[in-house]
Amino acid sequence: MLVRLRINNFVLARDVTLELAPGLNLITGETGAGKSLIVGALALIAGARAEQGMVRQGTDRARVEALFDLRGRPDLSALVTRHGYDIEDSELLVRRELTPDGRSKAFVGSGTATVAALRTLSAELIELHGQHEPQVLLQPDYHRELLDRSCGSSEARVAVRRSANRLKEFATKIAELQAHALAREGRLELLRFRLTEFGEVAPQPGEEQALREERDRLRHAEDIGEALRSALELIYEGEGAALDRIHAASRKLLAQGQRSPAYEDLGERLDELRIEIGDIATELRTESDDLVPNPTRLGEIEDRLHALERLRRRFEDAPLEDIIADAAEMQREADELASQGSSEEALRQDAARELKQYIESAEQLSAARAAAASRLQEQVAGSLADLAMPKARLEVALSPHGLEEIGPDDARPEGLEDIEFLLQANPGEPARPLRKVASGGELSRLMLALDMALEGGLPRRTLLFDEVDQGLGGEAAERLGVFLSRLARHHQVICITHLPQVAARAEQHITVSKKVRSGRTVAVVKTLDERLDRVAELARMLGGQRASDGAYRHAEEMIRRSQKNAGASP
User: Fold this and answer.
1) What does DSSP say about strands 13-19 and 2-10: parallel, antiparallel, or unpaired?
2) What is the Cβ-side half-sphere exposure of residue 430, based on CA atoms within 13 angstroms?
């Protein structure tokens, strides 16, 4: 909601501060009094382009400030925060500064903003309907929003948008995998070749050293066997063998054990040594029996060592332990690369399932839109008739993409059709886009009719209507006042009007006039707080500057009747 508008050195406004009410704010004044400067100031806040001539003559800068209350709009507060702007006590200050050469700066909160960012934020804050840009009703995206609000299928809209976004994510991931597919296949082929080489040899940790030791034993089997047998002869089997001598020495010492424990201890140690020599002899005998020349085994060992050597050369003479470790890493990489191919197929399957869900949700949304379009056309036609446009017809054009088969690339967050509002201004003429046929006054009345059809279905915002009463009078003027009063239940409404029937319904009545001060013309904006002031302004609107007593009585009666019938249906 717009709380306050301040205008400095803008056209004829030297220093104007306007406090706005939550409901219906009506602005009146004589023709040429400067009411349009309020519309122009709000258009700048909405992101309109600054132009030369907007800065008051003789000043170096113009400024327009708008203070908005964001309470009740957490979605808008979140949007402002996402754009990096600050909110203070649920209030947002928007400012435009202009220089005489037509340049401008925009500020949101305490930070600077681009005009594009200002338009994005202001689109959720304020809507202008009249001659001034931007005209939100000329934008097909807004037509889709209005239609979707009227059909009430929020779940289908969310499902369509979610599925479309997920399909886009799938397409991005698949494209990334495909972009790397050639390099991946080349690398995978190399890894598989190297792993095949490794697998054909299949070396084991410590194998090479063990084979070299076994080869050395087999090559010197005779020398080693002779040494084993000689050792066995010396310590165990030969005449005067060490075992017999140690046994004799042990008995002699043990016999002297009664004379000294030390002799007994030495004897026992020798006896233990004798036992150890016996064990060694057993091992020597076993080794001697096992060690026989084996040319076949020696040949196998030589072949195996040659195979290991060839493998090492293929792996740049790395140690076998490093080759074994590298093979494990290559296998891990190969498995990962192979799984990426599986990932692509899995992504395609997921995308196919998501596409099916998208089509189901989009078809539900299309059906809801078609039904809502018919209802909306009928409702708007009735309201336009009440607003002195009895021949006009709104046509909601749903244009399907015309695809026989929808693929993942065809999934749009907006659904299966384009949506645009068309206006048939006169019978027998084709319905045409609003931007080509509708005047500012017609657009304002059409927007008013759409808002009435939605009955508060849109988030609360500030709506400015300019020229909405153009060409109206009598009962149509009365109905316009009722429409605006009803609309003000859901939104803040600012309306510039020339009709006393409309002005009589004001919750806040503001007048604009021109004064000459110090030789310069300035615009004067005044809020009419007293009932007598409102009666006087309505009397002027009814009978001119020299309004009769009858005009004053009529004005008094209009205000009294409007207050009594506030909110009545048209």
Assistant:
1) antiparallel
2) 4
Nearest to 1 by CA among 527, 529, 528, 494: 494
d(CA 174, CA 295): 60
Q: Which H or E run contains 24?
A: strand 24-28
Rounded distance between C-alpha atoms, residue 274 and residue 326, angstroms: 51
Q: What is the 3-state secondary structure (H, E, C) of 254-275?
A: HHCCCCCHHHHHHHHHHHHHHH
Cα gap 319→227, rounded to integer Å: 34
Per the structure block, which two tokens stand in for 63?
């400024």
Contacts of 408 (CB under 8 A, 6+ apart): 167, 170, 171, 351, 355
d(CA 376, CA 450): 8
Q: Report pTM.
A: 0.66
Question: What confidence tens digit (pLDDT) does each residue in 16-28 have?
Answer: 999 999 999 999 9
The values of phi and psi at residue 100, to 5°, are: -60, -25
For residues 188 and 182, what is the distance between their CA atoms, to the nearest angstrom?
Answer: 10
Among 58, 7, 67, 61, CA closest to 36:
7
Q: What are 120-155's pLDDT values in tens digits?
A: 888 888 988 875 545 677 888 889 988 988 887 778
Question: Tokens standing for 195?
Answer: 């792993």
The secondary structure of residue 410, as a DSSP letter, is G
